[in-house]
Amino acid sequence: MKFLQIGLIFIALLFSAVSHAARIPSYSLKLTERVRVRVSEAMTKVHVRGFDLKFYESPPYSPPFQSDRLFYQASRLTEWEVQCRPNEVILIQPIKHLQISLKGPLLIESEAGFLSLQNHPYRDFLRIYPNATSCEVVNEVDLEKYLDGLVNAEFSSRWSEEAIASQIIAARTYALYQMRQARAKSKKNGSSHFDLDSTIKDQVYDGAIREDYRASRAVERTRGMILMIYEKANWVPLKAFYHSSCGGQTELPQNVWGQTIPGFKHTVRCPFCKNSPTFSWDLSLGADEIRAAVSHGLQEDGLMKAFPRSYTTIFRSWMIADLRVSEWDLSGRAEKIVLQLKDAENVFRLPISASRFRNWIGTARMRSTSFEIVKNPWGQEKTWIIQGRGNGHGVGMCQWGAKVMGEKGYKMAEILHYYYPDAVLKKLW
Ligand SMILES: [Zn+2]
């Protein structure tokens, strides 16, 4: 582990107003243990509150292993406003009439271990980056403490102990994989200043507000446990995907994202999620809605270029004659669908990957690609009914299935081996 000594330098000119600041003790960070979670992309004003806050200036958009410079230390409880402009962070303390302008990102730490961001508690550190018109906020937090907060955001600490332990190990493994990826990237191009998003893009996290005793106990029990795969003569973390419910069979990454991901060689049949609320679902899509979604999706994904120019009118004015699944993959999910458009003389067949179609319609409405399409026989307008199963991409662990396995008495290692048959469980710390 690499320890960094943070230089303790006052910027005397900037802080004549705060010359009463106490002598600041030396300070060290174990940076490699902290995960960097982007908790907001675009806040116009950031409000931070905390006890004995310390403020550091970071080198602009630095990789994480460079020195931060302590420039101010507040005592007791103080509340601050932070505003961002291009290449500028402005720190404001209204009661003390203090306004400090910085070029680099601003790092804030509380001696107490908790900070409040927009009245929401976060542990360890907040680093604030200036965007063109807003602030981007990254919570730098101990990986195990990040998991304490994650449990009740992504799953529930009320689930059985074995199920919750499996979920935590998957989440820790996914986070470690993303940390390695982001830091490997930042060595090359210096651009990645966070490891994970706090949304469904990665793992849902909203700080320390949902931590509870059961969550912390389950995290502690699995401390340092990671799903590993052997790749290019090295043990590395698996990209441990998980999803809400698989609908009966898990999926391979190449069928969702078009590329293989190491450690996913097998799909598994899952009899455990059949009582999940989303095991089966229906969605009705009208012709206008399909045309609008496909036309917008083709533009957004840059696929319109592949068609002759005259084709742009097809999606505005032609009739939709048919919509059907044309190919299925080995897990039984739709792989390709075909949209048939026609006018008085011509018929035009447009093949679309089912995964792409799901994104265009919206992943929250069209919950998975495990579906069939039937034409609505009673609709006044042309409508199609999508009859689907499961919720999410289907890769890796089925969360609902893991929950049920836990209730049935399966152990954590059995649950993980069931959904990640190509990975090995190891304790790294
Ligand atoms: Zn399942």
Describe what you observe in this structure.
The chain has helices at 143-154, 161-189, 213-221, 253-257, 287-300, 314-317, 354-361, 399-407, 412-419, and strands at 3-5, 28-30, 34-43, 45-51, 53-57, 69-73, 77-85, 88-93, 98-102, 106-117, 120-130, 135-142, 196-197, 225-231, 234-237, 242-243, 280-286, 319-328, 334-342, 347-353, 371-375, 383-389, 397-398, 424-427. With 429 residues, the protein is α+β, with helices and mostly antiparallel strands. It folds into three domains: 3-142, no CATH class; 145-242 and 399-427, no CATH class; 280-389, no CATH class. The strands form six sheets. Strands 3, 4, 5, 6, 7, 8, 9, 10, 11, 12 and 13 form an eleven-stranded mixed β-sheet that branches. A three-stranded antiparallel β-sheet has the order 15-14-24. Strands 17-22-21 form a three-stranded antiparallel β-sheet. A hairpin with a 2-residue loop joins β7 and β8. α1 packs across α2, α1 (143-154) packs across α3 (213-221) and α5 packs across α7 (354-361). It starts with a strand and ends with a strand. Bound molecules: zinc ion. Zinc ion binds at residues 245-246, 270, 272-273, 398, 400-401.
Count of runs of 4 or more consecutive helical residues: 9
Q: How would you characterize the largest beta sheet?
A: 11 strands, mixed
Oligomer: single chain
Bound molecules: zinc ion
- Termini gap: 12 Å
- Overall geometry: globular
Q: pLDDT below 50 for ≥5 consecutive residues: which ranges?
A: 1-31
Helical percent range? 10-25%
Query: How large is the radius of gyration?
Result: 25 Å
Mean pLDDT: 85
